[in-house]
Amino acid sequence: MTKIFVNIGLSLDGYMAPEGMAIENWNNPEYKNWGAKWGTMMSWILKQQYFCENLTFGLGGETGPVNDMLRYTMERSGAHIMGKRMFEQGEVSWPEEAPFHTPVYVLTHEKREPWVRPGGTTFYFVNDGPAHALEQARESAGGRDIRISGGADVIQQYLKMGVIDELEIALAPVLFGGGRRLFENLHDTLPQLQIDKVINTPDATHLHYVLL
Amino acid sequence: MTKIFVNIGLSLDGYMAPEGMAIENWNNPEYKNWGAKWGTMMSWILKQQYFCENLTFGLGGETGPVNDMLRYTMERSGAHIMGKRMFEQGEVSWPEEAPFHTPVYVLTHEKREPWVRPGGTTFYFVNDGPAHALEQARESAGGRDIRISGGADVIQQYLKMGVIDELEIALAPVLFGGGRRLFENLHDTLPQLQIDKVINTPDATHLHYVLL
Question: In the sheet where B122-126 sits, what is the strand order?
Answer without folding.
Answer: B115-116, B122-126, B103-107, B77-83, B145-150, B4-11, B166-172, B205-211, B193-200
